[in-house]
Design goal:
By secondary structure, the protein is an alpha+beta fold. 49% of the residues lie in helices and 14% in strands.
C-alpha cells in the first residue's frame, strides 16, 4: 500500500508540474488567476492588468491586432484615458483577444503572450499597434515579423520562438474569442466598462468624451 501511495503521489506531482510548465518559461511564471473576472466577463486568459488592480473601475477591451479601428482607438483615445484614469488609479484596463479578422490575427495574439512569458506583454502589445499596417494579412504580422518585433524589444529569442512555433497559447486565445462571443461582441474594438454597480457595453472606437461620461458616473 505504501508503494502504491508513493506512485500515486508521483503521478499527481507530475500532472501539476506539467500544467505549470505549460504556462511558464525559465524566465517567468505567468500568474494566471483562473477565477479572475470583471463583471460577467472571465478575463482569466486576457492580458495582465494595466494600472492598479484594485482600481474601482475596469475597462475590458476586446480587440484584434489587425483591426484598424483598434489602431485608431489606441492612438487617439487610449492615451488620454491612461493619463486621466489609469495613471491616477481611478481605473485599470484588461485586453481580451477577439482575433478574428485574418489568419495572422490569432498568431499575433499568441505572440503577445509569448512576450508576457518574459515580462513584456504591454511593450509587445504597444509595438503591434505602433507597427500595424492597413492591409489585413498583408505580412506585417506574420510569424517572421512577430519574431522581428520580439528581437527589437530585446527578448530572449530562443524562448520566444519556441513559444510561438509550438502554439503554446492557441487555446488561451481561443478562450478569449469565446468570451467575446458569449458577450455578444460582434466587432472590434468592443468595450465593457465595469464599475462597482454594474457594467456598460460600448461598441467601436468611441472618442474620449464618451468614455469620460461613463467613467465619471461610476466613480
Amino acid at each position: 500500500m505504501n508503494k502504491k501511495g508513493v506512485v500515486i503521489g508521483v503521478i499527481v506531482i507530475g500532472i501539476i508540474i506539467g500544467i505549470v510548465s505549460s504556462l511558464s518559461t525559465s524566465n517567468e511564471t505567468v500568474n494566471l488567476d483562473m477565477s479572475r473576472t470583471h463583471g460577467t466577463i472571465s478575463t482569466a486568459m486576457g492580458s495582465p492588468i494595466l494600472g492598479d488592480p484594485s482600481a474601482p473601475i475596469t475597462i475590458v477591451e476586446f480587440g484584434d491586432y489587425q483591426c484598424h479601428q483598434c489602431y485608431n482607438w489606441f492612438h487617439n483615445t487610449k492615451p488620454t484615458i491612461f493619463q486621466n484614469y489609469i495613471e491616477t488609479g481611478k481605473a485599470n484596463l484588461v485586453f481580451v483577444d477577439l482575433a478574428f479578422l485574418g489568419r495572422d490575427s490569432q498568431k499575433a495574439s499568441q505572440a503577445s503572450y509569448c512576450a508576457e512569458d518574459q515580462g513584456m506583454y504591454w511593450e509587445y502589445h504597444d509595438t503591434l499597434y505602433n507597427f500595424q499596417e492597413p492591409q489585413i494579412d498583408g505580412g506585417w504580422a506574420n510569424s517572421e515579423r512577430l519574431k522581428a518585433f520580439a528581437s527589437n524589444l530585446g527578448l530572449d529569442m530562443d524562448l520566444f520562438e519556441s513559444c510561438l512555433d509550438s502554439g503554446k497559447y492557441v487555446k488561451r486565445v481561443q478562450y478569449n474569442i469565446q468570451q467575446a462571443r458569449d458577450h455578444d461582441v460582434r466587432g472590434t474594438p468592443g468595450f465593457f466598462i465595469v464599475g462597482p454597480d454594474g457594467q456598460q457595453q460600448l461598441g467601436g472606437a468611441q472618442p474620449y468624451s464618451v468614455f469620460k461620461q461613463i467613467l465619471d458616473t461610476m466613480i
